[in-house]
TrEMBL record:
Domain of life of the native organism: Bacteria
Keywords: Isomerase
Organism: Butyrivibrio hungatei
PANTHER family referenced in this protein's UniProt entry, alphabetically: N-ACYLGLUCOSAMINE-2-EPIMERASE (PTHR15108)
Alphabetical list of SUPFAM superfamilies matching this protein: Six-hairpin glycosidases
Protein name, UniProt field: Cellobiose 2-epimerase
Keyword Repressor: no
Role of this protein: Catalyzes the reversible epimerization of cellobiose to 4-O-beta-D-glucopyranosyl-D-mannose (Glc-Man).
Any GO BP annotation: carbohydrate metabolic process
Entry keyword Transmembrane: no
Reaction equations catalysed: D-cellobiose = beta-D-glucosyl-(1->4)-D-mannopyranose
An annotated Gene Ontology molecular function: cellobiose epimerase activity
Length: 388
């Protein structure tokens, strides 16, 4: 599995994303339709750009290929010049193809991913300016995008609260969400890893407390997803992909904190999450996207399969007696190879396939949410873990 996935990274994912580099206006093209036509004048999502920044920076650290660092620098220069709001601070949601502010929403989720990308770029390049920017975004989130009980979601350009439709789904308008908190944790973890900043460490402890006492449902052995301000769950939703992703990301955070007692305590929760996804959602080959009110949505979304591999490999490494997790990761890779990777020249992964493996032709190959973050990260995780 390791050699196959490394080959796919080197000869599939990396060349594909290098091919979307925009040398005229900067950054990377924001849209490729199912027909593989690139819209060079489509908006450029700042989440897309920060995730690409993270990907190429992290790939450089693993593969030590200077062309990857060049791609990361290209993403960094675009983010620094166009995605950061020099007037009010923070990161825009999106800019036009030529870098003009387009959607000026300031979302906590977006700031967190920029911290993630900048921290990885500092680690790869040693550019202290990138670390300084990451720290300033951390300070901004803590000052303007949270209250005494945790993290809030969406704001306008001047940081006045607005509706959270960008990170709300399934008929909700969430004041807080599991997804945003998960990725604030992820961004802060990367920042703490490269900086050792004690303030960030303290924030991570607070986030883990919120996850374990407010987000996690011990009776159902899953995370709740959307919440009101008081952490009341707004919908009966089981996001299989987010749970298996969260299981290993939370473990990563406790590993980097280096607190053995905390790791043992939190590890019981993450093992329950991984075990429950394996039992409830994994069908022996793949993982559907979610279940709402006990009704399963059967789409096999690209990122869910990728994070399934990460989550099951992590669970296996921590519990090597449970070889079913390793077999699940191998089965997911076989499924991805057969159904999710688009075999057409010049393409990458389908957005999703149905339960019969038929790809969704109404979904693009690239758009602001579809990038090399999940599948590229899966490849890097498999390579670095080297579990065969």
């Amino acid at each position: 599995m390791v050699s196959e996935i490394k080959e796919h990274l080197l000869n599939g994912i990396i060349p594909f994303w290098k091919g979307l580099r925009d040398d005229e206006f900067g950054g990377y093209y924001g849209y490729m339709g199912y027909d593989l036509a690139v819209d060079k004048k489509y908006e450029k999502g700042c989440i897309l750009n920060s995730r690409i920044l993270w990907f190429f920076s992290s790939a450089y650290k693993v593969l030590v290929d200077k062309t990857l660092l060049s791609e990361a620098t290209h993403a960094y220069e675009f983010l620094k010049k166009y995605c950061i709001d020099d007037e009010y601070g923070g990161v825009f949601w999106s800019v036009s193809y030529d870098g003009k502010p387009l959607d000026t929403t300031k979302h906590t989720y977006n700031q967190a991913f920029t911290i993630y990308g900048l921290s990885a770029y500092f680690d790869a390049s040693g550019d202290w300016e990138a670390l300084k920017m990451a720290v300033s975004l951390y300070e901004l989130i803590e000052k303007k995008m949270r209250d005494e009980r945790g993290y809030l979601e969406a704001f306008d350009r001047e940081f006045k609260p607005v509706s959270n439709e960008k990170l709300s789904e399934n008929g909700t308008d969430a004041v807080r969400s599991m997804n945003t908190l998960l990725h604030v944790m992820e961004g802060y973890t990367e920042l703490y890893r490269v900086s050792g900043d004690g303030r960030v460490r303290k924030s991570l402890y607070e986030i883990l407390k919120i996850v374990s006492t407010k987000i996690y449902n011990p009776k159902l052995r899953r995370q709740e997803v959307f919440f009101d301000k008081d952490y009341n769950s707004l919908v009966d939703l089981y996001s299989y992909g987010h749970d298996i992703e969260a299981a290993w990301l939370i473990n990563r955070t406790t590993d980097i904190l280096g607190d053995g007692d905390l790791s043992a305590k939190i590890g019981r929760m993450t093992e329950e999450m991984a075990s429950e996804v394996y039992k409830v959602a994994f069908d022996g080959k793949s993982i559907p996207v979610e279940g709402q009110n006990s009704v399963v949505k059967e789409d096999r979304v690209w990122w869910v399969q990728a994070e399934g591999i990460n989550g099951f490999l992590d669970a296996y490494e921590r519990h090597p007696e449970k070889k079913e997790y390793l077999e699940a990761a191998r089965a997911l890779w076989d499924y991805i190879k057969e159904f999710v990777i688009d075999k057409r020249p010049g393409s990458e992964w389908f957005w999703y396939v149905d339960k019969n493996g038929v790809p969704a032709k109404d979904k693009p190959i690239v758009e602001p949410w579809k990038c090399p973050y999940h599948n590229g990260r899966m490849c890097l995780e498999v390579i670095t873990r080297n579990v065969t």
